[in-house]
Specification:
The structure holds two protein chains of two kinds. Chain A is mainly alpha-helical. Chain A is built from 14 helices and two strands; from the N terminus they run αββααααααααααααα. The longest helix of chain B has 26 residues, at about 15-40. The chains are: A mainly alpha, B alpha+beta. At the A-B interface, strand 1 of A face strand 1 and strand 3 of B.
Chain lengths: ~325, ~170
């Protein structure tokens, strides 16, 4: 069978024309490449030539050939960026002229702000507050998704929290209370969160002056960011030992090396001063539009986020919590 | 007659061209190899093998860092300009918001494409858990910032990529 095949091959090669060359008795057959293959090869060569002429490709002593089109990755990047900015421009222009409540009432703008704030939130806030404003396991930072706000959940209050940062204080009580008193007060706090009446604990709460910061009803005071002790939402932890620890060592009390640390950084000092001046003007029945901002603030302002970024984040964060009334 | 014994082929311009092409190809290779050794792109560390062997040590260190439960963030200006002095702050806190007494907090800036531009600075304590330093970036573009906080044998790293504008 193999012999039959060999002889068939030999017969076939006999029929193929050759070039007339014989290499030590071996004929050089004339088997031209298929026409389509040759055309493809020539076309490829032509394309390479066109590419060399149009695009930067040939390495020279100083840089490379520029190409007739003058194309570079950087120009393409800039063109793409310009295209994106051109698409954003009408939204950004409209956004800069709108107040936060106006944006919240405009569904199209709200969609735009929400989409563009995700990156801002991820870059600047998510490290502490989690990607969706939820608690990060093992880290004791305020949850933004529960609509419970230490410093208030109105858009003005949220904007102030971002611009100025927050750093509440609770004094350490290790030296001023006995162990029994601390335990009794701890139990009162836990009972309050479970709506259990604890008369002795309440008496101690009043006697120790805890009401000054947490209020007579223990619901906290928004102006100073003190926690509501009557709900089940905990700034640090609701475990007995953790609550006890907070009472013993306080929060941000530099006199106690074991104190809890709770710092929300300041993101835009100038905006914070402007917001405060605006709030003061309103409180004094003045028109905040008449304030001369340059006289209100002078100095090297801390600007880690622009005013526009903070406005966007305010809207984004306000929605994370479900959204309280716009102003309080 | 054309044959393998025919030396006339060496006078053929196509053959000469092929030999020339081969020579150019080999010379270019030699130049590239020389330049690769002479001007390394700094993407490969010298002790890569030892580091590879120490991989499990690095893994353990990362696991230990996670167990510490420390957290924090690097605060940078909204717009960083080249050759301008900027204040950089970090906030670092321990597990469950405890205060840390750190031995050192170092700021490292890495230029991804050029290690010669890398620099570091010691951060000073501004307040409890808050450290700062003034730095300036010498080149525009992307920089990787790493803050390394140490307390005894415990180490904690914070990272952030920043863009520096011209």
């Amino acid at each position: 069978m193999a012999d039959e095949n060999n002889s068939a091959d030999e017969n076939q090669s006999e029929q193929v024309s050759d070039t007339g060359h014989s290499w030590d008795g071996i004929r050089e057959l004339n088997n031209p490449c298929p026409r389509w293959w040759l055309n493809s090869l020539y076309l490829s060569g032509l394309m390479v030539l066109i590419y060399l002429i149009l695009y930067p490709s040939l390495p020279l002593i100083n840089g490379s050939s520029k190409g007739l089109l003058g194309w570079t990755q950087m120009t393409e990047y800039k063109e793409d960026l310009a295209e994106i900015e051109a698409r954003r421009a009408p939204f950004e222009k409209k956004f800069s002229a709108m107040t936060v409540p106006e944006v919240l009432a405009d569904q199209e703008m709200l969609n735009y702000v929400t989409a563009s704030s995700k990156v801002l939130f991820g870059d600047n806030c998510a490290a502490c507050h989690g990607v969706g404003g939820q608690a990060v396991e093992g880290l004791a930072y305020p949850v933004l998704a529960d609509d419970d706000w230490l410093y208030g959940g109105s858009t003005d209050q949220i904007m102030m929290s971002i611009a100025n940062g927050r750093q509440g204080e609770m004094p350490a009580h290790e030296g001023s209370m006995t162990n029994d008193e601390v335990n009794q007060l701890t139990q009162f706090v836990i009972d309050s969160s479970n709506a259990v009446l604890n008369e002795a604990g309440k008496a101690l709460y009043m006697e120790q002056g805890c009401y000054v910061c947490h209020g007579n009803d223990a619901k906290g005071i928004t102006e100073i960011g003190s926690g509501d002790l009557t709900d089940k939402l905990w700034r640090f932890s609701g475990d007995f030992e953790e609550v006890r620890y907070t009472i013993l060592h306080g929060v941000n009390d530099n006199s106690d090396p074991k104190t809890r640390q709770a710092i929300m950084p300041q993101w835009n000092e100038k905006l914070a001063v402007m917001l405060q001046a605006k709030a003061n003007a309103i409180a004094e029945n003045q028109d905040p539009r008449m304030l001369e901002w340059n006289k209100v603030f002078e100095g090297d302002e801390t600007e880690r986020l622009t005013e526009s970024d903070i406005k966007k984040l305010t809207i984004y964060v306000h929605q994370l919590g479900g959204g309280q009334s716009l102003s309080q | 007659m054309i044959s393998q014994h025919n030396k006339e082929g060496l006078k053929n311009p196509w053959v000469l061209g092929l030999i020339l092409f081969l020579c150019v190809f080999l010379i270019m290779n030699a130049i590239f190899i020389y330049l690769a050794f002479r001007q390394p792109p700094n993407l490969v560390v010298k002790d890569f093998y030892e580091r590879g062997q120490d991989y499990h040590v690095t893994q353990k260190q990362i696991e230990r860092e996670k167990q510490l439960g420390w957290s924090g963030m690097i605060l940078v200006p909204a717009k960083i300009r080249v050759n301008h002095k900027h204040n950089i702050e970090v906030i670092i806190q321990g597990k469950n918001s405890s205060v840390l007494t750190l031995d050192t907090v170092e700021f490292h800036a890495y230029r991804p494409s050029d290690s010669r531009a890398d620099f570091m600075a010691i951060m000073q304590q501004k307040s409890v858990g808050n450290y700062e330093t003034d730095i300036q970036f010498s080149l525009p573009g992307v920089w990787d910032v790493i803050v390394e906080a140490k307390q005894g044998d415990d180490k904690f790293l914070l990272t952030r990529r920043v863009s520096v504008y011209p």
